[in-house]
């Protein structure tokens, strides 16, 4: 009896030992700053000295702040468009590259390359492409007789630029995850479906797609959270303009915290961002039926 | 199917990498700065700078160390982008450098928050008289100096001679008395617009980013003010305010500037000038070396326009000591040393910046690069009034800047009328200063 009990305790200790470094790092660099940010969000402070405790006043201000609501709407719109488009494109590319495409190794590398480029560098490339006075894209449009687009000074085209650049950046990653998922689907299932008379689309719709459930779940959560946290691309490419059209939650929090130096209010925006990400992850966890689907 | 552990780790690592990299940069940037409690006689000095500026600081430090046996100054050069997130973090953590460099429009935020050393008890007698009244006004907080004005800069107009010649504009002002009036500038812009190829614009104004303080030049030229002398009460809701907004909005309405020239744009005005998209650009002297090496066209420099009076923004940087320094005397003597005539002259000439000492504004300054442009910038700096510079030293300036940026953007691209714009500005400034 004693033998039986001792072993699990030893195993548990070993397990705690293995996760301890991770938990310690997570606690130190994520949880402690999170609690700190929450405390700051209850203060009115310019960051120097002790702030003045104001309770939930910063959160109250958020409710009546039109700039916050507009930034939230912009962030949500950006998230929906970017997540849907980059996942659909990623899946399409993964399916193509999972087939017998010539030089698929080369294509895979080319598609994944943007991932290796930092967000700031990606955005700077975007500036060269979308510059409306000297950019490559407007010159090309002009050369083929199409009207030039005011990518930088009109709200909708400016929003389109941050969406396009982010999709370019992220599609390769989505493709990689989908490709891993596709390669885990055994050929026997497709063969069986084919014998049952399913055509290509039916096999994709009823065999491939459901079995990619875990990949899709992972990608939706990751894409949504990263889209909500978008900063570098917007900051460099549009700076939140023109007329606030591309101002997202994090650029608003940054401006509030580090330009205006209203750090309590900026921390409150950050807390809202955290809350939205957590709520989304939980809802998605409960709602996804194919999350753990396996062959 | 299940996502394999390996694939998940690879994916997570790939996603996390871009997040970690900038983090490393930040930590690295603050790494070498040390604390204010180092060995006796050692000062830490954090700054950003162009190559010429950093070379100037290094030779000043060397001269200071030779003149003061046992004193050392550790220079910590950081990229401008990291400069103030670093400084803020160090101030919050209680281990700031002894000395740092700060733009005049950011100076007030630190001085007003009690983070800087009041230099009054530590400075030699008569130091104030070595600086222009304007420069001295820019480092005051509550009636005391909290820094020394190291250099200034103000905007004149760089012009592309080839484009101006092509539009038939050959008569460009060569003295500050002959500077274009606002009306004359408008006429020049109309002639340029008519004479330039499509896709090319008469000019661009350098008010992007924190440079929005350069819009204030137009307000000062209209003989207006945005703050009262208490640095709290907004004065911008005035005829002068409306006139400055109206005039600057007309740049966009008349197609004198590209739409990307707005205050919130990520495209800097100078870049549109270098690429030949605009014929003229408002620019500080600091741009002269770049223009000399980069511009592939012939160019010259003339004075900013004159409205009701001449006026300009008081740009540039002060050197400040932190409240937490353990060596206030040594810090103050270093600041005095670096702003002495010989040091300031060498620094300004090499880096194309304007001095803050009257004994260098008497014609004795000559830029190393394109020396003939020196007099125009010095003359332009002479248009800056002390009461204009004093407003920019407001402790609330960092909260006022976003108000100006947003409201001007709405006036420039969103067609918000001048009256509404200045009313909103006044409200925003009052919120920022707590007036």
UniProtKB/TrEMBL annotation, chain A:
Membrane topology recorded in Swiss-Prot or TrEMBL: Multi-pass membrane protein
GO terms under cellular component: plasma membrane
Segments passing through the bilayer: 12-40, 67-97, 109-130, 156-180, 209-228, 264-283
Entry's Gene Ontology BP terms: transmembrane transport
Any matching Pfam family: BPD_transp_1
InterPro entries xref list: ABC_transporter_permease, MetI-like, MetI-like_sf
ABC transmembrane type-1 domain segment(s): 72-284
Keywords: Cell membrane, Membrane, Sugar transport, Transmembrane, Transmembrane helix, Transport
Protein's cellular compartments: Cell membrane
Keyword Lyase attributed: no
Highest taxon in the source lineage: Bacteria
Family: Belongs to the binding-protein-dependent transport system permease family.
Record-given protein name: Multiple sugar transport system permease protein
Organism from which the protein derives: Klenkia taihuensis
UniProtKB/TrEMBL annotation, chain B:
Pfam families hit by this protein: SBP_bac_1
Cited CDD domains: PBP2_TMBP_like (cd13585)
A GO molecular function held by the record: maltose binding
GO terms for biological process, alphabetical: maltodextrin transmembrane transport; maltose transport
Keywords per UniProt: Signal, Transport
Gene3D superfamilies named among the record's database cross-references: Periplasmic binding protein-like II
Superkingdom to which the source organism belongs: Bacteria
Residues spanning the signal sequence: 1-16
TM region positions: none
GO cellular component, one term: ATP-binding cassette (ABC) transporter complex, substrate-binding subunit-containing
Record has Transport as a keyword: yes
Protein family: Belongs to the bacterial solute-binding protein 1 family.
Protein name: ABC-type glycerol-3-phosphate transport system, substrate-binding protein
């Amino acid at each position: 009896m004693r033998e039986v009990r001792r072993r699990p305790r030893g195993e548990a200790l070993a397990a705690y030992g293995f996760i301890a470094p991770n938990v310690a790092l997570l606690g130190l660099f994520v949880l402690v700053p999170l609690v700190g940010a929450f405390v700051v969000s209850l203060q009115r402070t310019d960051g120097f000295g002790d702030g003045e405790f104001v309770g939930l006043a910063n959160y109250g201000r958020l409710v009546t702040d039109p700039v916050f609501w507009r930034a939230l709407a912009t962030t949500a719109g950006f998230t929906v468009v970017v997540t849907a488009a980059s996942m659909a494109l990623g899946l399409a590319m993964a399916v193509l590259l999972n087939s017998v495409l010539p030089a698929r190794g080369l294509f895979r590398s080319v598609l994944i390359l943007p991932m290796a480029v930092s967000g700031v560098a990606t955005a700077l490339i975007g500036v060269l492409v979308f510059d409306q006075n000297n950019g490559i894209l407007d010159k090309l449009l002009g050369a083929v007789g199409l009207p030039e687009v005011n990518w930088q000074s009109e709200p909708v085209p400016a929003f389109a630029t941050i969406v396009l650049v982010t999709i370019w950046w992220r599609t390769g990653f989505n493709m990689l995850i989908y490709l891993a998922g596709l390669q885990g689907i055994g050929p026997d299932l497709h063969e069986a479906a084919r014998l049952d008379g399913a055509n290509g689309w039916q096999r994709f719709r009823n065999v491939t797609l459901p079995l990619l459930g875990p990949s899709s779940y992972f990608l939706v959560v990751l894409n949504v959270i990263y889209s909500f946290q978008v900063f570098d691309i917007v900051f460099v490419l549009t700076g939140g303009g023109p007329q606030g059209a591309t101002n997202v939650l994090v650029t608003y929090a940054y401006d509030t915290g580090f330009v205006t130096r209203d750090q309590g209010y900026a921390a409150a925006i950050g807390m809202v961002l955290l809350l939205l990400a957590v709520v989304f992850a939980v809802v998605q966890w409960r709602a996804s039926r194919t999350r753990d689907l396996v062959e | 199917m299940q996502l394999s552990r390996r694939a998940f780790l690879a994916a997570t690592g790939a996603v996390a990498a871009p997040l970690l990299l900038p983090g490393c940069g930040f930590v690295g940037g603050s790494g070498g700065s040390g604390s204010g409690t180092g060995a006796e006689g050692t000062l830490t000095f954090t700054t950003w700078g162009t190559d010429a500026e950093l070379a100037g600081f290094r030779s000043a430090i060397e001269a200071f160390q030779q003149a003061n046996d046992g004193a050392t100054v550790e220079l910590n050069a950081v990229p401008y982008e990291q400069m103030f997130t670093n400084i803020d973090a160090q101030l919050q953590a209680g281990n700031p450098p002894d000395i740092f460099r700060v733009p005049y429009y950011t100076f007030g935020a630190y001085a007003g928050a009690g983070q800087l050393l009041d230099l009054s008890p530590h400075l030699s007698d008569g130091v104030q008289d070595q600086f222009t009244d304007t420069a001295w006004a820019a480092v005051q907080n509550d009636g005391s100096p909290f820094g020394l004005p190291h250099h200034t800069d103000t905007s004149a107009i760089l012009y592309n001679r080839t484009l101006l010649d092509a539009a038939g504009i050959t008569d460009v002002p060569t003295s500050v008395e002959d500077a274009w009036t606002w009306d004359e500038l408008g006429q020049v812009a109309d002639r340029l617009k008519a004479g330039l190829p499509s896709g090319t614009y008469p000019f661009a104004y350098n008010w992007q980013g924190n440079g929005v303080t350069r819009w204030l030049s137009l307000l000062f030229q209209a003989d207006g003010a945005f703050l009262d002398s208490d640095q709290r009460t907004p004065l911008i809701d005035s005829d002068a305010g409306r006139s400055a907004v109206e005039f600057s909005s007309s740049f966009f309405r008349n197609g004198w500037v590209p739409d990307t020239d707005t205050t919130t744009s990520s495209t800097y005005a100078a870049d549109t000038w270098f690429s030949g998209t605009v014929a003229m650009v408002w620019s500080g002297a600091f741009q002269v070396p770049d223009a000399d090496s980069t511009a592939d066209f012939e160019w010259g420099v003339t004075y900013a326009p004159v409205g009701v009076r001449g006026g300009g923004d008081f740009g540039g940087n002060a050197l400040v000591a932190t409240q937490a320094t353990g060596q206030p005397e040594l810090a103050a003597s270093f600041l005095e040393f670096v702003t002495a005539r010989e040091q300031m002259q060498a620094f300004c000439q090499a880096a194309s910046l304007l001095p803050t000492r009257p004994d260098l504004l008497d014609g004795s300054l000559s830029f190393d690069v394109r020396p003939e442009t020196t007099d125009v910038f010095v003359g332009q700096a002479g248009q800056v009034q002390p009461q204009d510079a004093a407003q920019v030293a407001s402790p609330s300036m960092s909260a006022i800047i976003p108000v100006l940026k947003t409201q001007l953007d709405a006036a420039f691209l969103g067609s918000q009328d001048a009256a509404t714009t200045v009313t909103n500005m006044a409200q925003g400034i009052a919120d920022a200063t707590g007036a």
